[in-house]
Description:
One of its GO terms (biological process) is RNA processing. The protein contains 3 helices and 3 strands, in the order αααβββ. The chain is an alpha+beta fold. The chain has one domain. Helix 1 (about 5-25) runs antiparallel to helix 2.
Amino acid sequence: xxxxxxxxxxxxxxxxxxxxxxxxxxxxxxxxxxxxxxxxxxxxxxxxxxxxxxxxxxxxxxxxxxxxxxxxxxxxxxxxxxxxxxxxxxxxxxxxxxxxxxxxx
Length: 105
């Protein structure tokens, strides 16, 4: 027999979306935005839910600040073994480097 569908995951997804949207709204007050993104990471770890790629890439790996190009980070695209995006966090100065596939360009 297969596993039953995880109902807890379906119940917590709207809560996670609300926390992410709140963090986006609070982006101009960094401490509150960081608190919300850390809460989001904590809930995902506690409930063992994977965040989608876009959500993970929009957070700074060092300080958990939500990175929006032109608002809270600098971003530039360059070619090195394919296309890559370099994002520099304005809050902590950390550099996040991501591979970009054809469908994401």
